[in-house]
Amino acid sequence: MTQVEQNHYDRQVASWLLFCAAVIFGMILLGGVTRLTNSGLSIVEWQPLMGVIPPLSEQAWQETFDKYRQFPEYQKVNRGMSVDDFKTIFMYEYLHRLLGRFIGVVFLLPMLYFAWRGRIRQGLTPKLVFLFFLGGCQGLLGWYMVKSGLVDNPRVSQFRLTAHLGLAVAIYAYMLWLAFDLLFSAAPPGARRPYAGWSRALVGLVFLMILSGGLVAGTRAGYAYSTWPLMGDSFIPRGLYAGTPAWMDIFEDITTVQFNHRIFAYLLVLLIGVFAALVYRGGATGRGKLAVTLVLAALALQVLLGIGTLLLHVPVALAAAHQGGAVLLLSAMLYASHVLVRQ
């Protein structure tokens, strides 16, 4: 195979990976809407194959609704709900699961085709197989999360929800990185790479920020204080770390969870601002300058979405956009890191 042919095949594989990443991005958004509309516990069974087919008759809908009525969410939260109302929450969760199956198909079949035709560059196949394995784990983790809400307390565990979100974002990020590797040639070994380490650290911090947002979602801490920059009547609210043991408040106390998320956001704004200034002052040109500009634009958008979500008391559309904005910020930071690490 000539280098020209390999470059052509690399672009094909990268385009496929970027398409899969875009679908995963949509999956993350739909997952946020499913959670925000309290639809995630509407399907009380896990049927990887038969679950592709939704109820197709009024009798089938009634049977599905009767199964839902046996669980605590109906008995404690939605008692008296009609079948028509149930159809609405069911379809959000159904579409979320269907999109997950679609991702598996659009990843596996092209991977097999590219492998059969010998178009995957050497060393990439194990990474793609690993991605497919992670996708299977994500499906299992999603059901493990749902099961936590089919008990006495009809809310999914914030730990399982955060893990489910985190794995989805990790798969998305790894897929993007592999696509960038295929699209952009690497600098020769030993080339000077200023701020490469800092860019990696910021990718990690943005990912941790997303996990922090998962805890906010899982505990519904975003509804607690609809004010900014103060939380209620003070910047540092009363009751922080007042539980026993205090460190568990990081994960369970809604005041502490929201406060930590805000402080994490302020820290990221500061660090990314300093990072961008240093890269600009270092004479960044071309892709480097573009990458840092994209990071700053994504950061500004995410800050505005976060403040708006708080002040408007977590409307579904804005809160879902805020979750999507976090992934966009991670995407921009990944691109900037790839430029600084690889180029």
Q: Would you mind describing this structure in some detail?
A:
The chain has helices spanning 3-36, 58-68, 72-77, 83-116, 125-147, 158-183, 196-219, 249-252, 254-281, 286-311, 316-342. The chain has 343 residues and is mainly alpha-helical. It has two domains: 1-183, no CATH class; 188-343, no CATH class. α1 runs antiparallel to α4. The chain is flat and about 65 Å long. The protein starts with a helix and ends with a helix. The model has no long low-confidence stretch (mean pLDDT 92).
Distance between the first and last residues' Cα? 25 Å
What coarse outline follows from CA principal-axis ratios?
flat
Oligomeric grouping of the chains: single chain
Q: Estimate the mean pLDDT confidence.
A: 92
β-strand percent reads under 5%
Helices and strands: which structural class? Answer: mainly alpha
Count of DSSP-assigned helices: 11
In angstroms, what is the radius of gyration? Answer: 22 Å
Q: List low-confidence stretches.
A: none
Indicate how many domains the architecture comprises: 2
SSE blueprint and pairings:
Blueprint: H1 3-36, H2 58-68, H3 72-77, H4 83-116, H5 125-147, H6 158-183, H7 196-219, H8 249-252, H9 254-281, H10 286-311, H11 316-342
Keywords:
single chain, mainly alpha, 71% helix, 343 residues, 2 domains, 11 helices
